Amino acid sequence: MSRIYPGLLEDARRTVQFEPILHALVVLFVLAQGRDSVPAERLASREWYRDAKFGMFVHWGVYSLLGQGEWVMQNRPIAVSDYEWLAATFNPVKFDARAWVSLAKAAGMRYITITSRHHDGFSMFATRATRYNIVDWTPFQRDPLKELADECRRQGLKLFFYYSQLDWHHSDYWPRGSTGHNTGRPESGDWNRYLDFLDAQLTELLTNYGAVGGIWFDGMWDKPNAEWRLPQTYALIHRLQPGALIVPNHHQAPLPGEDVQTFEQDLPGANTAGFNTRTIGGLPLETSLTMNDSWGFNLTDHHYKSTRELIHYLVRAAGVGANLLLNIGPRPDGTIPPEAEERLREIGQWLATNGGAIYATRAGPIAPRSWGVTTQRGDTVFVHVLDWSDPTLALPSLGGGRWKAKSWPDGKVLQVMQAAGGVTITLPAGGETADRIVALTHR
Ligand code: JFZ
After folding, report:
1. In ligand 1, which atom is closest to the CA atom of 69?
2. How far is the CA of 187 from the centre of ligand 1 (A)?
3. DSSP class of residue 296?
């Protein structure tokens, strides 16, 4: 780890002209970000994002009524006309933005990413681009995204909008891709008119809700070789909100204009799901995860991961420098399944004590191991011991001279045995806790 003697900058300021050096550093920094020239607002948002570490994913829409996940229109399949009838009954009277945001906050989450429009094509916000939206089409008549945006601002969370580029309802989604063939639409349509519709809706989402965290795109994988007009759409977003991030779930290496590389049901680099790329670039990372086996509300899916497993996933994501976007599928009345709420509150309690070894950290110096991972912040390396039952743990050499170890956050001094080949630490007691954390610093 490189160290700068504290007076160096002061001395430099006094003895040399500082501006040219600063300028050269900025140029180097911009080059390091790739050929994109990314404005300061977005660079700042990316750093905020890297620090945030934990967000709430929300899949909620007309599909929630059927309790069979958000793909029910495709899977059954359901014709557009039948689905339109269903949509007209959507009335989530128990929806309470304050309760949702308070829960996210209690869980230690720093942002919420919610489905503004999923593949079913139903807009969960007030839009002039189509009457097929929650305000104009349903007895509910409220705009839940507006209520969430206001509440997020009040409670200090950022709000991101999931937006599906794929549409099983719109007649101009033509030619069709790999899905949406059985919903009874005409075999014709105007692709550019569809993309105009997308841009019009994105303009609304980036104009009517104050500062948004960004747009989480999904569905391009339905037609990977179509002309999606990405440069035009991305430029529109960046022009409307220079600080908003673009998070694409297209399962490819990042494209120009994008800010985050997101992975689905897999940690970056892994591909158990079968559709994630293993190519990891230099952008901030995120991994999205279901708490049970469904994104949208599934009435009979009680196969929830344990709190311990979810904490382990959060820690393992932090160990590779990635955020965890943990999903909930609220019920059609607007309430959140109790299994999900219970786990979120437990994770929040854990983070209230241990979050200092997670938030604002970066991936640590030791690559992930079967026993756990490392994170670091400043000069402190946090060793997260997740699966290890022995009282000591041997680490490879960390370089940088002599190290001292303390259990974290309580600060009890732990014994360190240091040799040329590595560092062996005595672990804190409590092998049954979710994560035994050791803070390593230079002596
Ligand atoms: C996508 C959505 O289809 C899904 O409903 C959910 O919103 C999730 C977060 O994102 O999931 C995908 C996307 C692509 C594939 C599989 C699931 N794929 O290419 O196999």
Report:
1. 5
2. 25
3. S
Ligand 1 pocket, Cβ-based, cut-off 6 angstroms:
59, 70-71, 218, 221, 249, 264, 275, 288, 295
3-state DSSP call for residue 281? coil
Which ligand 1 atom is at minimum distance from the Cα of 115?
7
Name the amino acid, one letter, at 215.
I
The model's pLDDT over 252-303, given as tens digits with 9 standing for 90+, comes to 889 999 999 999 888 887 788 887 777 788 999 999 999 999 999 999 999 9
Question: In the chain, how long is the greatest CA-to-CA distance?
Answer: 76
Residue that has been written with the tokens 């905020």 in this structure: 48
Distance CA 131, CA 118 (A): 16
Q: Are 122 and 70 in contact (CB under 8 A)?
A: no
Q: What is the pTM of this model?
A: 0.91
Q: How many A from CA of 57 to the centre of ligand 1?
A: 13
State the pairing for strand pair 392-396/422-426: antiparallel
Mutate to test the pocket of ligand 1, among 168, 217, 218, 252 (most ligand atoms within 8 A of CB): 218
SS3 label, residue 200: helix
Q: In what order do the strands lie in the sheet with 261-264?
A: 245-248, 214-218, 158-164, 111-117, 54-58, 322-328, 285-289, 261-264
What is the position in ligand 1's atom list of the atom closest to the CA of 274?
A: 20
Q: Which helix (H) or strand (E) holds 332?
A: none
pLDDT at 33: 47
